[in-house]
Amino acid sequence: MSSTDQLEVEVKFAVDDATPVPDFSAVEGVAGVGAEQRFTLSATYYDTPDLQLTRNKITLRRRSGGPDEGWHLKLQGTRGRREVHAPLDAGDATDPHHVHPPRTLLEALHEALPAAPVDDSSADFIAIAQVDNERHVTDVMVDSPSSHGGAESVGSATSYKGAEFCDDHVSSRGLLDGGQAQHWREWEIELSPEILDDHHDGDAQRDARGFADDFLDRLSQHALAAGAKKSSSPSKLIMAMGDTMPD
């Protein structure tokens, strides 16, 4: 069973329904902004019956819709989060009370949390929240310094996808006892795999990371200037669980 592994570095913002989407083309270093794309995403989040994952800030979900649909396991990292993916048709989620995630994700989970089950034939997980999202996505291209890898030539300039801006219109439902339905809007700015390419050593790696972090900071400041506020919640799951979130 195939799986993929990538780094996720993003910032989240709370916005009300009337907040206009910012024009990132005015930000220093932005080479251009792509056309908006829209996706309908539907995700179910899972945990062990005693909520081991949620207590350890680990997320497991199965999401349909969008270019990266499938199973997603998100683990805490020293920089951002490590995200492990598996295909949508892997595992078994037909019974929300006895869910069996893909074995590749269970193995990655067990490495990070040894107390978590690793045997896909006996590891039962339960559905804890449902999150549906109308996502409006815009690619933000970045001007690249000649020393940074992963760039491609566009006309006479050098640029590539530096980040993805997501305008999310979210509906959620907590699936544990006492769970409630909620609706909100939020923005996410996530650095692209190209700008996070860490195939460098020493000073070159530090320069590449500094370049990516500076770019994310400039985009974030532009979002704040447009009326957004830094989100008080680190994830949609925490918002969806509400008062059923464990201490």
UniProtKB/TrEMBL annotation:
<dbReference type="Pfam" id="PF01928">
    <property type="entry name" value="CYTH"/>
</dbReference>
<dbReference type="InterPro" id="IPR033469">
    <property type="entry name" value="CYTH-like_dom_sf"/>
</dbReference>
<feature type="domain" description="CYTH">
    <location>
        <begin position="6"/>
        <end position="226"/>
    </location>
</feature>
<protein>
    <recommendedName>
        <fullName>CYTH domain-containing protein</fullName>
    </recommendedName>
</protein>
<dbReference type="InterPro" id="IPR023577">
    <property type="entry name" value="CYTH_domain"/>
</dbReference>
